[in-house]
Amino acid sequence: MDKTKEGYVKTEHKNGLAVIEFYHPSHNSLPSNLLKSLASTILDCGADKKINLILLKSSGDRTFCAGASFDELVSIQDETAGKTFFMGFANVINAIRNCGKIVIGRVQGKAVGGGVGLASAVDYCFATKYASIKLSELAVGIGPFVIGPSVVRKMSSSAFSQLALDATNWQTAQWAKSYGLYHEVFDSIELLDHKLQEFIETLLTMNPEALGLLKKVFWEDTENWDTLLEKRAEISGKLVLSKFSKETIAGFLNN
Predict the structure, then answer these.
(1) Please, are residues 127 and 184 in contact by the beta-carbon 8 Å criterion?
(2) Computed over its alpha carbons, how large is the radius of gyration of the chain?
(3) What is the pTM of this model?
(4) What is the pLDDT of residues 30-54, one digit of tens each?
């Protein structure tokens, strides 16, 4: 079976809350079909007048998201295909930005590359102490170009430069919290989910119109991201074709 076709994105709606969950057997990595489904699902939930709040989560307890699918990256043969793949991450980030609803993130485990991008794009993020982060893109010859604006916006340019250049080392969840990626960090998934439920129940009692206006305020000065992230996707789409990237990614897959 083609590994890039495995996994799922599913949604549950209840009492004004949409829970969007994604899963892939390769540590919740994201091939293009899941990225496309995530973006469209987020926008659909944003357009649904019966939904006032969105929760974004992944399945399992070890890894929130391992980022780009290496199986798909290694199969890219031209710049158009490369750009198209990385536009998948751009489209998810822009869907969160444009959906009009507050998006809460649940990061139960490690986040790598695009997974950090997802965590940085949500409006409020809960994590466990096991939710270490790493931007490993440079180590495979690419660089975190597409997710960069989202990480800088949430964490600062200093934190982004450290993550981008120190591409082989993990940073702890507490380190990520100190830079604003996570708003709260818990010792266990059980504690996270208890607090998360309380937080969501409280927000659902708030004025939906006020929440929608706050969403606009949170994302002020990002109106150029449609074009900015597309340009960044072009950069990554070219770099993934380099000899360095092809050999490095293939090496990871063969280990």
Answers:
(1) yes
(2) 17
(3) 0.96
(4) 999 999 999 999 999 999 999 999 9
